[in-house]
Amino acid sequence: MGQNDVLFERAQKTIPGGVNSPVRAFRQVGGTPRFVTRAKGPYFWDAEDKRYIDLIMSWGPMIVGHAHPEVVEAVQRAAETSFSYGAPTEGEIELAERLCELMPSVEQVRMVSSGTEATMSALRLARGHTGRDLIIKFEGCYHGHADSLLVKAGSGLLTFADSTQNAPSSGGVPHDLVKHTLVLPYNDVAALEEVFKNQGDHIAAVILEPIAGNMNLIQPASEFLGAMRSLTAKHGAVLIYDEVMTGFRVALGGAQSLQGITPDLTCLGKVMGGGMPMAAFGGKKEIMSKLAPLGNVYQAGTLSGNPVAVASGLKTLEIISRAGFYECLTAQTEKLMAGLKQAADKAHIPFAVDSVGGMFGFYFASKVPTSFEEVTKTNIDAFKKFFHAMLDEGVYLAPSAYEAGFTSIAHDNEVVAAIITAAEKAFKRM
Ligand SMILES: *Cc1c(COP(=O)(O)O)cnc(C)c1O
């Protein structure tokens, strides 16, 4: 038994399933999760001291590479003056100003500690602002694990749950709550129009992943986005862009900057904390001013705006704002996807790829899917084989066919070439 197996067995005694977040458990692909001991740049090492090229990067946050010296220094400096005060700091103002600058739709922003908190709070705010209960989400989109949002949800829910029923994707979520959540297929303009026609004046909010990354990677059609923006505006519903994954990942201004859409509220997380527990939601001042202490929509957090997390976030935002960062990140990711596609073609394996900025999807299918339904029809068995062959070769992919992948600025030519070589071997073995 290797050290990873030893640790996994020990972990399962005191931690349910041995992990603190379900997808880490390798349930879809089988085998033993790797226990990480350290990471640097594009690599991490496991408990057996095997090195892997990381293509998850903590599920997105580590966009400047693991343990970037400038971020480490900023965090160390912040830590020396204590970790938390429960009182405001100047760093929070700086971070808020920076976020508002980078995303002009965000006029005011409130910091929280996780993406789940961001979406949960944004929904409460949208409901408080409109005085309506109904929300619309899309099949396969994941917005964290708040009760109202665990309906036909993506990510781990998609990997584990029998999420094809018209019911909560999780136990412990009351039907009474879920009845206020309408779920529509992604990219389906007609379904959206129909719902607004029938119930438009009861809809508090539409929430979506503007580029879906929790059912593999699925891009929205521009007509879909356009219809959503005009229907929500016409009916006084709040449009919530959940950019927890895409914010600062697909472009410096997030998916909204690529799509030319101005949402009413935006949720952020992952990259904005640079790997520390940090997230935020923000948007129109008119809506944000309904939050306590100004308004009657309550929201709070002991560790919100945590100074160490703020330091990590500010430094990460500084690095990604430097000239050429996204051009380089995007080019490297495209190079990687083109290489994987070529390797699969050579082995005559049906394979499709897509990427936006530093986020990518690959599919064991003859074309890139556009909906949740199409994703579930890709070849999951082929994915499992590929996953394990790549793991053997020292490349760590997301342990589920329903997750996007992530690169960092540290994934240079040498790293990309190594991944492609590993993939050539892996495809051959299939
Ligand atoms: C990761 C993610 C969340 C949840 O964020 P946590 O920090 O894990 O709570 C919400 N929405 C999207 C789109 C995400 O990718």
Provide a descriptive summary of the structure in words:
- With 430 residues, the protein is α/β, with parallel strands linked by helices.
- It has two domains: 172 residues, Aspartate Aminotransferase, domain 1 (Alpha-Beta Complex); 252 residues, 3-Layer(aba) Sandwich (Aspartate Aminotransferase, domain 2), CATH 3.40.640.
- It contains 15 helices and 14 strands.
- A seven-stranded mixed sheet has the order 4-10-9-8-7-5-6, with helices on both faces. The protein has a four-stranded mixed sheet with strand order 1-2-3-13.
- Strand 7, helix 8 and strand 8 form a beta-alpha-beta unit.
- Helix 3 runs parallel beside helix 11 and helix 7 runs parallel beside helix 8.
- The longest helix has 22 residues.
- About 1% of the residues have low confidence.
- Bound molecules: pyridoxal-5'-phosphate.
Annotate the secondary structure layout.
Layout: H1 3-14, E1 36-40, E2 43-46, E3 51-54, H2 69-79, H3 90-102, E4 108-112, H4 115-130, E5 134-138, H5 156-160, H6 175-178, E6 181-184, H7 189-199, E7 203-208, H8 222-235, E8 238-242, H9 254-259, E9 265-268, E10 279-283, H10 285-288, H11 307-320, H12 325-346, E11 352-356, E12 359-363, H13 372-376, H14 380-392, E13 395-396, E14 405-406, H15 413-429
Parallel strand pairs: 3-13, 5-6, 5-7, 7-8, 8-9
Antiparallel strand pairs: 1-2, 2-3, 4-10, 9-10, 11-12, 12-14
